[in-house]
Specification:
Layout: E1 2-4, E2 15-18, E3 21-24, H1 29-37, H2 49-55, H3 59-76, E4 82-85, E5 91-93, H4 95-104, E6 108-114, H5 122-135, H6 138-144, E7 149-151
Parallel strand pairs: 4-6
Antiparallel strand pairs: 1-6, 2-3, 4-5, 6-7
Amino acid sequence: MKKKVAEINSAIKYAVFCGGQTIPCEPSSADIQDARDQKNYETRSFQDPKVLAELGTDAIKHKKFHAEKIAYFAAKGCKEPILLYNDETTILDGLHRVKAAKCSGLEEVDVIVIAQPPTLSEETRNKLWSAIARLKDPEGALKSLNIPILKK
């Protein structure tokens, strides 16, 4: 299903948690544009444990990663739909893609709306992200984890 980008909650800010503190690492529009101009694109999944280990708690590395990931989707596009919870505004997966759509001036993106479980354990969330990143098959990943699809 199509959803207007402006109706999706992309106000979530990237941050690193270190020593009980929250350190902002939100890339600016200029950071994203610089990455686009220089064709510095990040293709790896943010949920990849190797990527997270590499980035650690370094806010500068995180900011650069996010700018390059958004720049990648803005330049190359993306076929995978955004996963939204049943309120149809809250993102489960796809924040980089939504921010890239905004940067690119897209009005609509493809989404899949899922039932929001009372609690989505970290293990289930990691399995979902891993399946999406590996298989590029969000519907299959959702079905394999018994997460109902409400709209697509």
